[in-house]
Specification:
There is one protein chain. With 815 residues, this protein is an alpha+beta fold. The chain folds into three domains: 198 residues, no CATH class; 187 residues, no CATH class; 201 residues, no CATH class. The radius of gyration is 34 Å and the shape is globular.
Length: 815
């Protein structure tokens, strides 16, 4: 221990004397370890840490499988059958996410909350205990039970001032009284950032064999001990096959699936996050290589010191221990600074990071992250410390003493090999960044089917009884459109049941349809389309052209008018590939009540009068889906207002809010903003990964350039006498520069060659993140090679310029 303390003190004194060297090394390590720690904090919190539920590995999600083999919601009646007939679970609870509910308060404006309708066992199955009150009791999802609700921690604090007396009080949700029985724990927002949970009480229109086609829910279930997910999958699939056989009209070719709840919560970010973690690992390796090169140079300058210590009796093991101790001190100090930097980066990710990143509120530097950083520090210290230490410990005493001040120039091959490795890793990172940049550029330039500039969009929640039927909704939306049209700067106004570029639409109806004159499709092979009610001004407001035919007229936007329909290009292409759809009559398998009068319903149907350009509904990366547009007054299923304006967005949005309060202060508006902002938000994931990899690539490029510069500069310093002799014998400055730059470019060519081979293999990890770009895109690979060659040439030219100006007389005197 005394010897170790002595080594540490000696190392501190040596590092303090070379402040410039120490500062460069600490900065390099702090940056690399800090970024690595920050990325691991994200990976650890999102992917590694278990879900904050009781025995989360036993929780599964139950869904249906469409005839095309894709996951989709199930009908409540199907889910009841899974619950009652399966033998794999100790319990199951329905979950209907993405609902909105309006909270009405006497002293404040109404607000729209994200709501989840769940089965009574929901909280007990997850093992989540409320921080106030209780969870739902058994039977509270029955029709005879009183209406109850549980608030999220955020909603409790935001709308009720964190008043602990809220438990037992009644609140008005969608015009009905609910008793608040509990407040969920902080950070529990499953599913989909819910603000409030209330029991799923099924109505007659939702359950029963005639309603099996209403696919709207999923379920969570807890596996029995000893039952695997695969066994549960076989169990529910057997039940699904039985349902499909007995009810082919609704469930033909519809299956069921049981998957890990963890996978559902994480979504599609697992592979990309691991890829980013691998990328930041490359940055750390490059930083270690750079520090190792610096230590090799430093070791060469300390050959006389080491030779003297060896002559005085210091053994090789003793010298290696001393040098490794210095390396470990640098690594530990760099790691400490890196943790501080990582803390800032993690805070930035939580505060400014993409809202779509799952479990973002859980991201933090915890004990596992600190242990990881400590291990990284030890591994890093050994990685960049051992090679220089072993090299320095082999110093030849007699050679050093005879060489006087000339220096040996030893270790050149090692330094060159390290730089080649740095460059190859930099190629991998830069190719990945280049592919994501080109992919993101193509994504944001996808034609969404409308003009986003100067277009403001927002949704409203029509939840009160006066908007239960069509007449109230139509009167409200007409009055709002009239007021919006009168605002200064307004060019066009429209209303629709939904908005474009929305992954989680407030209204989303997909239904099968028949074409008059064609035979009815067999069960399981029905033609399907989205249904999108919209006002006659919708296409003009959106800036979406009509390809064939015409748009609706005001006269056709009435329930008593002859029914008409517009379809998009994808609809016409898929269902009328060799004929003109104009004039065809279609009828959808969906109807809705117009009023409270018995039998007073409207069916979605009509004559196709036009074909419109495809509008992307869910995302820029999604392929167009068949869509049919109905006159809004004939099917006012929701209300999204669209305003094309020349006014400044902030001013326009303020006026919109004022007009909405004047029309009905109990109707909350949400997601108010420009369409440009909505599109920008929709591409958060590719933007997030692109920025990360660009940052990693930039750091790698800088470190690789410094590595080349360091090796070439050191070589120049060791060959000063040689260059002086060459110049004395007639070599020109250009000859010397070419010689020095050539050395740097040879290293670069070797690094690029190895890097390209590695990049061909590594880019497979980001294939799923690319849009419209091949992972082996030659333009990207060529651009990266050219960029690295240019940077290497510049990094080599700087010491070459110094070498070309060597004065032969001064060089010989120095020797």
């Amino acid at each position: 221990m005394d010897i170790l303390i002595q080594d540490i003190r000696y190392a501190i004194r040596k590092l303090a004397r070379t402040r410039g060297f120490t500062l460069v090394v600490l900065t390099t390590l702090a940056l690399a370890i800090g970024v690595t720690t920050a990325v691991f904090s994200v990976v650890n919190s999102v992917l590694v840490n278990p879900l904050k539920f009781a025995r989360p590995d036993r929780l599964v999600l139950i869904q249906s499988i469409s005839p095309a083999g894709k996951p989709m919601p199930a009908s409540p009646q199907d889910m009841i059958d899974y619950r009652d007939q399966s033998r794999s679970f100790v319990g199951m609870a329905a979950v209907e996410a993405g609902r909105s509910i309006v909270l009405t308060r006497a002293t404040s404006a109404a607000v729209r909350l994200n709501a989840a309708r769940v089965g009574a066992p929901f909280f007990s199955l997850l093992g989540v205990e409320t921080q106030l009150g209780r969870a739902f009791a058994p039977g509270e999802d029955s029709r005879s039970s009183a209406k109850v609700a549980i608030l999220s921690d955020a909603a409790w604090r935001r709308y009720f001032g964190a008043d602990a007396r809220i438990v037992g009080q009644r609140v008005t949700l969608d015009g009905s009284d609910y008793e608040v029985v509990g407040v969920a724990p902080r950070a529990f927002v499953y599913p989909e950032n819910a603000d409030v949970w209330y029991p799923a009480v099924w109505g007659d229109y939702e359950i029963g064999d005639r309603n099996r086609g209403s696919h709207s829910i999923v379920a969570i279930a807890r596996l029995k001990d000893g039952v695997s997910i695969d066994a549960a999958q076989r169990d529910v699939q057997t039940i699904a096959l039985r349902i499909a056989r007995d009810f082919p009209k609704y469930d033909a070719k519809v299956g069921a699936m049981a998957t890990s709840l963890r996978q559902e919560l994480i979504g599609d970010v697992e592979r990309p996050l691991w890829a980013m973690f691998g990328a930041v690992g490359f940055v750390l390796l490059i930083a270690c290589a750079n520090v190792a090169n610096l230590l090799l140079v430093r070791a060469a300058s300390r050959e006389s010191e080491i030779a003297v210590r060896t002559a005085l009796g210091a053994g090789r093991r003793r010298l290696i221990r001393q040098l490794v101790t210095e390396s470990m001190l640098l690594a530990v100090a760099g790691a400490a600074l890196g943790v501080v930097l990582a803390g800032w980066l993690v805070d930035a990710v939580v505060a400014l990071g993409p809202s779509g990143l799952p479990r973002i509120e859980e991201i933090a530097i915890d004990d596992r992250v600190l242990v990881f950083t400590a291990l990284v520090a030890v591994a890093t210290g050994l990685f960049f410390g051992l090679v220089p230490a072993f090299h320095a410990s082999r110093t030849d005493i007699s050679r050093v003493l005879h060489a006087a001040t000339r220096g040996s120039g030893g270790g050149n091959r090692t330094r060159s090999a390290i730089v080649v490795g740095e460059l190859s890793l930099a190629v991998v990172l830069l190719v990945g960044a280049g592919l994501l940049i080109r992919s993101f550029n193509r994504l944001i330039h996808v034609d969404p089917g409308f003009r986003a500039e100067h277009l403001i969009v927002y949704n409203v929640a029509l939840a009160s009884k006066k908007y239960e039927y069509d007449a109230g909704v139509i009167a409200f939306t007409d009055e709002v459109q009239r007021r919006l049209a009168a605002l200064p700067g307004t060019v066009n106004v429209a209303v629709a049941a939904d908005r474009p570029i929305d992954r989680d639409p407030v209204f989303s109806a997909t239904a099968s349809f028949t074409v008059d004159g064609r035979p009815k499709p067999a069960p399981g092979s029905e033609q399907i389309s989205r249904i999108l009610p919209a006002s006659p001004s919708f296409f003009q407001t959106m800036g979406t052209p009509i390809r064939r035919g015409r748009a609706f007229t005001d006269a056709e936007n009435r329930l008593d008018a002859a029914p008409v329909v517009l379809v998009n290009e994808e609809f016409a292409k898929r269902y009328f590939p060799n004929e003109d759809p104009i004039g065809k009559h279609i009828t959808f398998g969906i109807a809705h009540p117009v009023s409270a009068a018995p039998g007073d319903t409207a069916r979605a149907k009509g004559e196709i009068i036009g074909v419109t350009k495809n509008i992307l509904q869910s995302s820029l990366a999604a392929k167009p889906f068949p869509a049919a547009y109905l006159p809004f007054h004939t099917a006012p299923f929701g209300a999204t207002f669209l305003v094309r304006t020349n006014a400044e967005p902030t001013t326009a949005e303020r006026e919109i809010r004022r007009q909405m309060r004047e029309v009905d202060r109990d109707v909350p508006i949400f997601e108010l903003g420009t369409m440009d902002d909505a599109i920008s938000q929709s591409v958060w994931q590719p933007r997030f990964y692109t920025i990360l990899l660009m940052g990693f690539g930039g750091i790698a490029l800088l470190l690789a350039a410094l590595g080349i510069y360091g090796v070439v500069a050191y070589a120049v310093s060791q060959r000063t006498r040689e260059f002086g002799i060459r110049i004395a014998l007639g070599a020109t400055s250009r000859d010397v520069s070419r010689l020095v730059v050539g050395r740097g470019l040879r290293l670069t060519i070797g690094g690029i060659g190895l890097g390209v081979v590695a990049a061909v293999l590594a880019t497979r990890a980001i294939r799923a993140l690319l849009f419209g770009i091949d992972p082996l895109d030659t333009t990207t690979f060529g651009s990266v090679a050219l960029l690295l060659a240019t940077v290497a040439a510049v990094a080599s030219w700087l010491p070459a310029r110094r070498a070309s100006r060597v004065d032969p007389v001064i060089a010989m005197r120095a020797e």
